[in-house]
From TrEMBL, chain A:
Cellular location(s): Mitochondrion inner membrane
EC identifiers of the protein: 1.14.99.60
Gene Ontology molecular function, alphabetical: 3-demethoxyubiquinol 3-hydroxylase activity; metal ion binding; oxidoreductase activity, acting on paired donors, with incorporation or reduction of molecular oxygen, NAD(P)H as one donor, and incorporation of one atom of oxygen
Subunit details: Component of a multi-subunit COQ enzyme complex, composed of at least COQ3, COQ4, COQ5, COQ6, COQ7 and COQ9.
Native organism: Cristinia sonorae
Catalytic activity, reaction form: a 5-methoxy-2-methyl-3-(all-trans-polyprenyl)benzene-1,4-diol + AH2 + O2 = a 3-demethylubiquinol + A + H2O
Chief location of this protein within or outside the cell: mitochondrion
Binding-site list for Fe cation 1: E67, E98, H101, E188
Binding site for Fe cation 2: E98, E150, E188, H191
Gene of this entry: COQ7
Membrane topology listed for this record: Peripheral membrane protein
Keyword Metal-binding: yes
A Gene Ontology term for the protein's cellular component: extrinsic component of mitochondrial inner membrane
Listed name of the protein: 5-demethoxyubiquinone hydroxylase, mitochondrial
Alphabetically ordered keywords of this record: Iron, Membrane, Metal-binding, Mitochondrion, Mitochondrion inner membrane, Monooxygenase, Oxidoreductase, Ubiquinone biosynthesis
Lineage: Eukaryota, Fungi, Dikarya, Basidiomycota, Agaricomycotina
Automatic annotation (TrEMBL), chain B:
Protein name: Ubiquinone biosynthesis protein
Pfam families (UniProt xref): COQ9
InterPro entries membership: COQ9_C, Ubiq_biosynth_COQ9
Free-text function comment from the UniProt entry: Membrane-associated protein that warps the membrane surface to access and bind aromatic isoprenes with high specificity, including ubiquinone (CoQ) isoprene intermediates and presents them directly to Coq7, therefore facilitating the Coq7-mediated hydroxylase step. Participates in the biosynthesis of coenzyme Q, also named ubiquinone, an essential lipid-soluble electron transporter for aerobic cellular respiration.
Subcellular location: Mitochondrion
The keyword Mitochondrion is assigned to this record: yes
Alphabetical keyword list: Lipid-binding, Mitochondrion, Transit peptide, Ubiquinone biosynthesis
Organism expressing this protein natively: Cristinia sonorae
Pathway where this protein functions: Cofactor biosynthesis; ubiquinone biosynthesis
Record-level Gene Ontology MF annotations: lipid binding
PANTHER family, sorted: UBIQUINONE BIOSYNTHESIS PROTEIN COQ9, MITOCHONDRIAL
Domain called COQ9 C-terminal: residue spans: 118-176
GO cellular component terms, A-Z: mitochondrial inner membrane
This protein's record includes keyword Mitochondrion: yes
Amino acid sequence: MFQSINLCRSCVQAFRRTFSTKALAVPSAAYTDPSRHGELAVSTTPQLTEQQRARLEAALRVDQAGEVAANYIYKGQLAVLRRDPLAGPLIQDMWDQEKKHLEVMNKLQVQHRVRPTVLWEVAKVAGFGLGAVTAFMGKEAAMACTEAVETVIGEHYDDQLKEMEDLPSLHPSVPLLRDVIKEFRDDELEHLDTAVEHHSQRAPAHALLSTIVGGGCKVAIELCKRF
Amino acid sequence: MRQQLLQLTLPLIRTHGFTRQTLANAAFALPSPHPQPLSERAISSLFGEGEQARITLINYWLEDAKKSMSDSSSSPTIRGVLAARLKHNEPLLDLLPEAFALLTASSSPFTIDPRPAVTHAFGIADEACHIVGVKSVGPSWYARRASLAAVYGAAELHQLNSPRTAYDFLDALLETSSKVHTAVNEVNTFADYIQRSAISIFKSRGVF
């Protein structure tokens, strides 16, 4: 009896969810929702010491460069695998999420007056090249590339969250920034899981490919921190 | 204490210039006034030896001038903000050439250091973009600031020689730079069309 009531309740909830048009209250909605662009948390930057300011700048610069590269990796993969019935829509979905990430990162860059990386164009070309080359090697190789990149990015966001613990939480933009980075970290790890589910481990020379791609990402992160 | 003293030197610069004397006399304006000006040793320990103290003072004045750029109207334009910064120079125009020369001179008599000039112009361009709310990202961030820095640098040099025509010169430069910007955009669009046509021709030959 109770089981059937619970079943009915969950059916009704599922029905409501399907037809609801209210956006989920994710932290990055503060940046994507145009009606919130005047809020203090979104439009002002906190007073920080020189060291903290330098670290914040480097962090946001790397994140923005990473999102540019990720966008172009998916663009490169889609250029080759567009017609694949399984991989095509999957890569398109992941790309759409990365587009949203880049939009938020651009707004963060303007808000905190961060200098973007000089290597912007390099990130675009390298990302597209990586995506296209791994997609040529096959669907599984493309998934393996995604897996390697998302692993490095997920760890990187995690390290950044630890670094950001000492920023002054009084200013409203700081907790929002931490929440946004957390949200993006979880999104990237979700992409990682998706890639693994779609047989990235079956890619030819998976270990070698992952090492090369992962190593390249780490070098890129260090370069973008400085330049 | 150091920041407080620097703050108090600002009104004295017009009369005493960018000198160690100005720094020494700032002690008179403290809330609990000193009976005598600061000693040379005090100035050297707070602000640096010899010419370094003057450089510290000049840099502080430049930072304060950058902050004054944002005190203008409610809907700022690039022209308005840069003109406000040029206006801030006006009381001290005769002192500025020596001040800039001091910043640019390095320890060796044969080399000049271009970095302070570039940092100065770029910093003002960045502040102007921030005040007006320019939202460029990526390479256009650099392009915009580089062009504004060049415009401001040229206008300021002009102002040092001929202060009355400086604002018209600034207007002319801004108009030229926006024409160049439009021309570059149009060339990019045209090049894009050519590229797409070339790709379509290539595809239609049946190679891919």
